[in-house]
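About this split. The held-out portion is used to measure sequence recovery: a designer receives only the structure tokens and must propose an amino acid at every position. Recovery is the fraction of positions where the proposal matches the reference. Here is one held-out target exactly as it appears in the evaluation file.
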């Protein structure tokens, strides 16, 4: 994950790390390399420039040039800025309501259904009673996929294969959850290959009908800048609460992780790093930043 960015950043700061003293020139050239590394990772120019401008200001403020270990201090400053860029603090999910309703949205293939299973598994381990809901009325295979995952993790799945009204499936599922004493309902919605009006309207209607306490937007990090653009469109329509970045195990660049918070001003809450049900992590911006500069 993020190998390219990691390599380039580490190379950029390496020349500073071993030195007892660093000069203006060292700093300027390192900052330039850091900016280039960010842009190569698919971070847009303005964001990369803002980040590196702040690194430079902090380096001056904290008197990096006369510090005992200037290189280490400089790395720490970059880490702080990357942490801020990715959202600062880890953000929790809102599970208010009885049952609490979580709506999962995103494009087809982004990893929604896999995440729904992982998330249910994660919450189940905390002792909650979960109901997974298959709200994809277009692809029967999506229903089966969720049922298979549900069985694997021991979580009930609600589906109405004959019903072509996603809103009523969601409503019926909530009534069912109440009758079964479930604490949390996770609604896996349909996704299309590209953002389309029918799909957007449908998920908006589900949102209106069930008032979720948490809407999570799932996006494939491998799609780079497209991930950021899709996030923007979904956010305009759904005003979601958090982002789930999937397939980070295959993402060598990291552009989506670094840019999404800045563009949509919504936090990344989870990262998915594989197909297994356990491959899910709460997103900690500071840990990710240290990992990138590790
Ligand atoms: P959906 O159409 O959005 O519901 O997407 P799926 O959950 O069906 O996922 C699409 C494909 O991506 C499946 O083959 C998943 O096994 C795979 N997948 C999902 N999440 C991850 C992940 O974090 N890493 C990897 N490597 N594959 C994933």
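Reference sequence for scoring:
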């Amino acid at each position: 994950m993020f190998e390219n960015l990691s390599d380039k950043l580490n190379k950029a700061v390496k020349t500073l790390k071993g030195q007892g003293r660093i000069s203006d020139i060292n700093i300027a050239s390192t900052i330039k390399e850091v900016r280039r590394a960010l842009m190569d990772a698919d971070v847009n120019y303005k964001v990369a420039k803002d980040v590196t401008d702040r690194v430079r200001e902090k380096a001056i403020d904290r008197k990096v040039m006369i510090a005992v270990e200037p290189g280490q201090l400089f790395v720490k400053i970059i880490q702080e800025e990357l942490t801020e860029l990715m959202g600062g603090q880890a953000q929790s999910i809102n599970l208010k309501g009885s049952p609490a309703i979580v709506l999962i949205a995103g494009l087809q293939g982004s990893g929604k259904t896999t995440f729904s299973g992982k998330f249910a598994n994660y919450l189940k381990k905390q002792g909650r009673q979960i109901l997974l809901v298959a709200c994809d009325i277009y692809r029967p295979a999506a229903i089966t996929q969720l049922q298979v995952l549900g069985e694997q993790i021991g979580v009930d799945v609600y589906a109405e294969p004959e019903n072509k009204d996603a809103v009523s499936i969601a409503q019926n599922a909530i009534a069912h959850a109440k009758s079964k004493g479930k604490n949390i309902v996770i609604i896996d919605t349909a996704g299309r290959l590209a953002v389309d009006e029918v799909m957007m309207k449908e998920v908006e209607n589900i949102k209106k009908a069930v008032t979720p306490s948490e809407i999570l937007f799932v996006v494939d990090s491998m799609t780079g800048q497209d991930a950021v653009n899709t996030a923007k469109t979904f956010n305009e329509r759904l005003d979601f609460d958090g982002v789930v970045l999937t397939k980070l195990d295959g993402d060598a660049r990291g552009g989506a992780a670094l840019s999404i918070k800045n563009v949509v001003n919504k936090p990344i809450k989870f990262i998915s790093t594989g197909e297994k049900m356990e491959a899910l992590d709460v997103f900690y911006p500071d840990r990710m930043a240290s990992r990138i500069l590790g």
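Annotator remark: Residues 106, 108-114, 191, 246-247, 249-250, 272-275, 279 surround guanosine-5'-diphosphate (CB under 6 Å).
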